[in-house]
Structure formats: C-alpha cells, structure tokens
Amino acid sequence: MVGLLDPLKVKKYTFCNRVVMPPMLTNLAATDGSVTDKLVDHYVRRCNMLGLLIIEAAYVSVGGSASEKQLGIYSDLLIPGLKRLAQAVHDKGTPVVVQIAHSGSKAYTGSVGLQPVAPSATDSARELTLNEIEGLLGEFAEAARRALAAGFDGVEVHGAHGVLVNQFFSPLTNKRRDRYGGSLENRMRFPLEVVERIKEEVGNGILLYRIGAEDLTPGGTKIEDSIKLAKRLEELGVDVIDVSGGLCGSRPPQLQNIPGYFVPQAKKIKNKVSMPVIGVGNIKDPRYANSLIEEEAVDLVAIGRQLMNDPDWVLKAVKALENI
Ligand SMILES: Cc1cc2nc3c(=O)[nH]c(=O)nc-3n(C[C@H](O)[C@H](O)[C@H](O)COP(=O)(O)O)c2cc1C
What we know:
The protein is an alpha/beta fold. It has a single domain (about 10-320), classed as Aldolase class I (TIM Barrel, Alpha-Beta Barrel). It contains ten helices and twelve strands. The protein has helices at about 35-45, 80-90, 130-150, 165-170, 185-200, 225-235, 265-270, 285-295, 305-310, 315-320, and strands spanning about 10, 15, 20, 50-60, 95-100, 115-120, 125, 155-160, 205-210, 240-245, 275-280, 300. Helix 5 (about 185-200) runs parallel beside helix 6 (about 225-235). It is globular. The mean pLDDT is about 95. Flavin mononucleotide (FMN) binds near residues 22 and 24.
C-alpha cells in the first residue's frame, strides 16, 4: 500500500514523498514583482523534505497582478531573482515549480493605472478583444519560458479561485458570444490554449494545472464540467492536476472546518484521469493525510496554512508516521 511518505515519479523528477506546499501569496516581493531575500528565506525555511514546492502565483503581465507586492514573471529582467529563488530551493534537494497567473477582473492595477480586463465586462473590468486574448496567450507562454530559464522544474497554471483562466471557464463570469464563450467547449478554449502554448515552453519540465472544480454557486461550474476539462488537459499533456475551488475561492467559509474539504472533487476527477491528482483543504493531521493516499482518494496532498504557520510540519509528519 502506498502512503504519504512514499516517493512519486513524474517524468524525470522524483518527489521524495506525497506532500506538496500549495501556492500561497506572501506579499514579500518588491513592488516591481522581483524576488527579495525575505521571499527566498520564506521558502527555504519550508521546503525541507517536501515532495514538491509550488511557489505562489506570479503574474504574467503588468495588468494582471493580485496585489502590490506579488511576485512577478512578466519580464526577462525578473529572471535573475527567480533564478536565485529556484536555486535556493534546489540546494535543499526539493523540486520546485512556480504558479503563473493573471487576476483578470480581480487585478490590482492601482500602481499601473490600467483598467482590469476580463472575458466579459464587470463593474470594474472591460471585456477583452480577440487580439488581446491572443496577446495574453503569448504572455502565459513567455512566463513559462522565463520559469524554465530561471531553473524551475516546471509551472502550474492558475485556473482556480476566480482568476482570469477560471473566469473564462465559469459560465458565471464568461458571457461572451464568440468562440471563447457560450458552450462548455468554447469556455474551455482559453484554458486549453494556455496549456497548449505553455507546453511548448515547459518541454521536459512538469506542467501542473490548478482547476477550479466547482463554483458552489447556482449556474456556476459543476464537477461534471471540470471532469471534462481535466480529461482534455491530460490529453494535451498536463502532468499533474491540482484540484481546488472555482469562484467560491480556495477557502469557502461554509467548508472551512471540514478536513480535506476539496478532496471529494479531487477524488471524482482522479477516477476519470490517469495523471496524479493533488487534494487540498484544511488537511492538518499527518495520519489523515496518509489515509488519503492509502485509500487512493488522491496521489498528493497539499498542506497550505499549516506549513505557512509551522515550517516544520513535514519534518514532524515524517517522524509521526515513522513511529506508527
Ligand atoms: C495567504 C494565502 C495565499 C494564497 N495564495 C494562493 C495563490 O497564490 N494561488 C493559489 O492557487 N492558491 C492560493 N491560496 C490557496 C492555498 O493554496 C490553499 O488552496 C488553501 O489555503 C487551502 O489549503 P489549506 O487549508 O491547507 O490552507 C492561498 C491561501 C492563503 C491562505
């Protein structure tokens, strides 16, 4: 029986165990999005004995950041700092990828004076033109190229929590009448094209996709739609699927106290794909995390706030499980 401490091989990479640190914004970057010493220290402190580290969302274009001090990956000038970050984590022997994102209608554009953009207009955002959509695909591809050039082992596309890629997928935020909106096929187009374009840049690296599996709002994304998207992503060459919430966000208040609150969705997706699946949501207890792997509910577990608050969580989990 496979458990939390067993390794997992993805392409040429071996994760030493099934624990993943999921992407979590720290606001420790500089205001231009470049890497700071504090940011490097934050991850070095938490990556010991970790199966895989997914660095927090980095914005792919100037109008797409989520906050003032978010990590950026929108320019080649940022590569040296990103290289320092990837190297520092690799020095600890941990595989590391970076999440790439655009916040769409939710972008913080205060510092650059741009109006946010989205698949469809909102109170604050204007609708993207087809030319701009093409431009964004190029920006995602460029971001992936930079990640690999900086020495990361791959990238994760942020397609959850109501950011731009998720805004295209959800019928609640995508009201377009062209080939990017309307039917499920059309709403999947942007997420799939992002992956297609990134794939060329990631090459032998690891390509992950964080899917917003359910919006938990009437008329929103349902798990059946997400299963279809997950299958298509796998066909396109996504290596690992990371299952979280859609427009409901990563921490829906009504689910907060349930251990493994997005694991049911992850399990349903796992039943229909062959790529490894990450489960997340209020997973604190190492024995519970281990049981999720043993029962084959998921292949990897993400430990977010616990690792944020207790950098030694993995070390303690390993000790606890070794002593069983
Ligand atoms: C402070 C904070 C920042 C986050 N930033 C991101 C992010 O950049 N990208 C992302 O996909 N999820 C983000 N998340 C969601 C986490 O990756 C994770 O899914 C969520 O915290 C639930 O896992 P947990 O219960 O183990 O903390 C963030 C969560 C927190 C608490």
